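Think of the structure tokens as a kind of shorthand, similar to the way a musician reads notation: each symbol stands for something richer, in this case the local conformation of the backbone. In the example below we present two proteins back to back. Begin with the first one, reading the sequence and then the tokens, and try to describe in your own words what changes along the chain.
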Amino acid sequence: MGILQYVIERVPASWLRAGARLRGRFRVVKRATDWLPGLLRHRQGVIRNGLGRGLKFNGGASAVGFLLGTHDTDVQYAMGRLLRPTTTCYDIGANVGFTAILAARCVGPGGRVDCFEPLAVNAAQIRGNADLNGFTHVHVHQLALGGDDGEAEFHTSHAPTWGRLAEAGATPEASGTIRVPVRRLDRLVATEGLPDPQFIKMDVEGAEADVLAGARELLTRARPVMVIELHHTHQAVVDALAGLGYVVRPLVPGGRLEGDPGEFQVLAYPEGHPDGEALWDEVRAGGRLGAP
């Protein structure tokens, strides 16, 4: 592993990003190179590129793009522009804590990162990654968010980033079913006394509209800027935000969608929000949304 890490640390970032894109686009490339990610999993290392460069991280069985710093570069770009010291950030669908520790670096000890993640193994990984970097301002809530309080079936996956609530649809590489607690964000914030966020990152594998439906009071009051990963849920998200004065923009280079990609990131912000408008202007100006 030491030799492999040495080699990876000297590969140009542009090559790593290109390799990640090829693996994502072509199954034959992915199959031919699957052995390499296997060598990097369950290993503590240092994030190679992007907003988290230099931070310590262990992705467990999750995506090796986290450790390489090539994962969700558009989200990293947005976070680098929107998060400031003292910001409160909600990471909804925090997985193993990649965006959480990036956010923790950006907001500093005067800020706060609240993570919402239903799987125990992932929640433990978030805490471990926060501890590796001395981030005491990262807080983990082991539960799912939705439109109602209660419990729900959750389909786990052999790929830790793909687990989802059963009501959100089929899970790729499904490995089992468990039951998890589900809370409305409005009620959770009120009962737990959580501070209102200025920024929300959401990746909940198809349950986006339900999470937003359970957070209408918070969104009306706090007016956070949000980056949301869609899973063929664009119209559902637009409908869930109806009447709240939010605009929803594609967070893709140039701000233009080609065809119907189904899965992509959107920037959602209160109409006229200066930071949201400034970032949208950057996106529309074109260019690649690479990580800082």
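Once you have a description of the first chain, move to the second and do the same.
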Amino acid sequence: MKNFILYPDITGGNLKYTRTANQTLLLTYNFNNDLLTNDMLGFYKLAYANIYNVNTIIANINNIADASTLQKNRFLADAYCIRALEHFDLARVFAQSYGYTADASHPSVVIRNVLLPLITPPGNPNTCKELFDQVTKDLDSAILLYPNSVNIFTLGDSRTYFSIDAAKALQSRVALYKNDWNKVVSLCTEIISSNKYPLISNSNYVNSWNGQTISSESIFELAYGNRTGGALGDYYNTASTTAQLASTNDLLNLFAASDVRGTALHVTATVNSFNYSISKKYQGINTTANSI
């Protein structure tokens, strides 16, 4: 997950290195990934492992003897959302964008929408249109199931689990990548007008990244884990020798002086006699660094 969060900022020119050795995602930074040596190979394998797991649930849902129909519907809805999200994220990393060809017929990634043995050869990639159609179908299935289901988890914040709002928000993101503006506006308006996810004020924005409180803005947020090393904050922690990523001037120059995401959300650190602006979002190497 760490690499997936870093990937778009490194490829998009938002981040630069503060050191010259042990640089994470260096192949990605230099656009040197290939089939055998790829910074994102671990993400690729984990995503398909997760897809295999949810396919196992979907294929065997009727064999569950100690759950009601409403509980099974929630299992299915969550599984469809996870499968949709994993396929969507895989396509965003390993394929060209939806509009790369006029009819989205260019290769994307392999769709796994049925349970197959683990040793099954990967096969040929599906087209981008086929991939997005599958993602949309899974989310449509989930959105139909959620109203006819009950909660099956009770621990933690409800926004760390999928929900009908999370499915609709993800569906709007998929539509955004397809330039389906009417669907984007319709789904987003429905969620925004519910007033269930108030925006954080400017004065509270920087501090909202500290601690382990789920953001009021979050529709779906990954739950915090108890991790004291190897967290996302390792890359940004100015008090640690692991700090290595700073915001580029190209990014910083986009923010107006009054924009809280600019100077207020950055700290200046001197590394090897050079000053860098490092994001405060992920400061620290403990459990406070895991807000995604």
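Compare your description with these statements about the second chain. Residues 69-94 form the longest helix (26 residues).
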